[in-house]
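Weekly sync, protein design subgroup
Attendees: M.S., D.O., the rotation student, P.L. (late)

Item 1: inverse folding check
M.S. brought a backbone from last month's batch and wanted to see whether the design step gives back something sensible before we order anything. D.O. pointed out we never logged the input encoding, so this time it goes straight into the notes. C-alpha cells as presented (267 positions):
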C-alpha cells in the first residue's frame, strides 16, 4: 500500500486536506480490495489464521507473544483445516439442513481478509420440531453445550451457542422472510477440500445495518468498498424501506442512505 503519510505530514494538513486525503486513501484501498475474488480472500483469511496458529502462546491472554502482539489462545485453534473449524463446517454441511456462515468469517471474505476472528456465526434453517435432532447430532459430533438451555434458547430467542474446543459457535435459527431471501441469494465459496455458504454482500450489509455495533460499522464499510459499483442498491433499499414502514423508529434506512452517500464521495 502506498497511501500512508507520516505523523508530521498529517499534522501539517488542514482539516479539509485531512478529510480529502482520507477519502482519497479509502478509494485507493477499495481499488486494492476490488482485485480480490471471494475465493482468494478466503484463502488469505485462512492463511492469516494458520499464521496465528503457528505463533507461540501462553494461557494468560495479557502476556505478549510473538512480535509486539497478544495472541489469544482461542485464535491458535482456528487454523484451517483441521479441527475445530473444518469440523464445524462439515457438521453444518451434513446435518440435512441449509445453513449460512455469517459474522466475522463472512465479513472477512466479502470485505477485508486481514483480520482474525475467534468465533464462528451461522444461520441454520431448521424447523422447531427438528431442533432436538439437530442438537443431538451436534453433541454426537463433539460440540459442547447444555442441551436443555440450548433448546430453550433456540425456541424462545431463536439462537443457541455451542463450543468446539476453543472455538465458539453461535447459531441463529432462521424464522423470517428476510432470512429465507438471504439463503436464496447466498454464495458458495470453494475451499481446499470442502466449501462454505455465505450471504451475498448486500444481505450481509443489511444484517449488519440492523445490529450496527462498532465492529459492524467497520465491516459494513469494508464490504461496501470491496463491492462498490456492484451492489444491488435497489434491493437493499427495498428491505430497508420495508423495515422502516413496519417500525418508524427503525434507523436501518437512514444508516443505509448514510453509507451510500459515503460511497459517492470515494474517488
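Designed sequence read out in the meeting:
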Amino acid at each position: 500500500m502506498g497511501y500512508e503519510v507520516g505523523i508530521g505530514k498529517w499534522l501539517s494538513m488542514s482539516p479539509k486536506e485531512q478529510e480529502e486525503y482520507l477519502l482519497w486513501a479509502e478509494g485507493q484501498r477499495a481499488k486494492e480490495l476490488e482485485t480480490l475474488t471471494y475465493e482468494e480472500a478466503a484463502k488469505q483469511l485462512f492463511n492469516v489464521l494458520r499464521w496465528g496458529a503457528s505463533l507461540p502462546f501462553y494461557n494468560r491472554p495479557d502476556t505478549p507473544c510473538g512480535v509486539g502482539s497478544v495472541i489469544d489462545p482461542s485464535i491458535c485453534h482456528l487454523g484451517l483445516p483441521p479441527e475445530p473449524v473444518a469440523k464445524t463446517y462439515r457438521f453444518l454441511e451434513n446435518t440435512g439442513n441449509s445453513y449460512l456462515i455469517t459474522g466475522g468469517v463472512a465479513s472477512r471474505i466479502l470485505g477485508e481478509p486481514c483480520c482474525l476472528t475467534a468465533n464462528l456465526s451461522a444461520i441454520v434453517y431448521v424447523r422447531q420440531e427438528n431442533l432436538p435432532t439437530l442438537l443431538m447430532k451436534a453433541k454426537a459430533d463433539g460440540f459442547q453445550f447444555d442441551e436443555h438451555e440450548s433448546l430453550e434458547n433456540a425456541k424462545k430467542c431463536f439462537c443457541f451457542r455451542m463450543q468446539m474446543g476453543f472455538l465458539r459457535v453461535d447459531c441463529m435459527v432462521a424464522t423470517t422472510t428476510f432470512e429465507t431471501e438471504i439463503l436464496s441469494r447466498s454464495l458458495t465459496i470453494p475451499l481446499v477440500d470442502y466449501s462454505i455458504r455465505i450471504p451475498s454482500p448486500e444481505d450481509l450489509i443489511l444484517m449488519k445495518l440492523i445490529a450496527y455495533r462498532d465492529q459492524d460499522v467497520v465491516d459494513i464499510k469494508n464490504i461496501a468498498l470491496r463491492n462498490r459499483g456492484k451492489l444491488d442498491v435497489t434491493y437493499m433499499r427495498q428491505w430497508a424501506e420495508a423495515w422502516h414502514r413496519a417500525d418508524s423508529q427503525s434507523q436501518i434506512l437512514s444508516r443505509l442512505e448514510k453509507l451510500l452517500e459515503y460511497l459517492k464521495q470515494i474517488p
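Discussion: Strands lie at 98-102, 119-125, 159-164, 167-173, 187-190, 195-198. Residues 37-199 form a domain with the Beta Polymerase; domain 2 fold (CATH 3.30.460).
Action: P.L. to compare against the previous round before Friday.
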